[in-house]
Structures are given as structure tokens and as C-alpha cells.
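Progress narrative, Year 2. Work on Lipoprotein from Corallococcus caeni advanced from sequence curation to structure prediction during this period.
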Amino acid sequence: MGRAVRHAVGLWLAVLGVLGVLGCPSTTSSKAEAGEAVVRRFFQALPSGDCAVLGPLLVTGQGVPPCEETVKDLREHGLGLVDVLDAKVDGRNPDAVLVRARVSQGGTERSEPFLFRVERQGDGWRLRL
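Result:
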């Protein structure tokens, strides 16, 4: 390989690296953002108790309680979202996001953060409780 070709390849790789850093959002960060958004939307809608809104935000399937049961339990315990601390893709499963958040229970903020799992199911992201 000639010197000019090596130089051109090196320059091209450098340009791609800069573009990756500057302008192209990574799929990892978009997954983390999606997971965080699901947690926020779920807890924003939880006071209504409306499973028409909350149901599509929850994981469904065998062994998972129905929305009505989950919502009733959460509301009875007064669980609420205080703030999302961070969200990251689960290293064991690229279709799962772990969201660490501060929550309140019965109006009192818990001292330890709570870990939520959000999974890709079908065409969207859903919270597993």
C-alpha cells in the first residue's frame, strides 16, 4: 500500500471518529433515554390509575400480573418517582435498560435508590415491575 493511500485511509478513519463523537448519537444512549422516558411517563400517569394509559408502558406476558393489580399495589403503597438518577443499557441484555431512581413511599423519600428494569417488547420499551 502506497504512502498516499495509507495517509488517505488514516485521514478517513480520523474523520469518521470525529463524526462519531460529535454528531452521531449512539444507540446505547438512545436506549437509555427511552428507558428513562418510560419510567417518567409511567409515574407521571400512575396517580390516574388508568390502565388504558399505564398498560402499554408495562411488560406483559406469562407470570406478569395484570396492569390493574400492579397499579392497585403501587398506589396502595404510595410509590412515587422523585427523580431519575441514571439509566444504562443492561450489560447482559442489549434490549434492557436499568434505570436508577429516587422514589418516595407513602410521601417519604426512600434513603436508597430504586432500580427499575425497562425492556424492549414488541415495538416499544416497557417497564417490568
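Residues 6 and 33 are 39 Å apart (CA to CA). The longest strand covers residues 79-89.
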